[in-house]
Input
Amino acid sequence: MTDKEKIFWLLEERFNKEYCYQQNLDRYKNDMTKLMAEWLSGLAINIPYTYNDIIKLSKELLETDTLKDEDKIIENYFNFMAIQIFKLAKNLHNEN
Output
């Protein structure tokens, strides 16, 4: 599968079919980022999820050995990942 096929499979075949039913849409007031973050926090896909792995990933992405507020990074991790997935989908959709 291409990257585009993978991301759209993730969104259409997994996320939409598993989690985007009316009760969840109502609960999250159609905020797809919050809905995706909640889905990801249930470990729907294989991404780092332990405190140590999230901090390690953050340090790698930021290319640093120290982070200012690790608790805030942990608190916002799944929301951040949801935003990144939607950005990736948008970028891949806009490619010719």
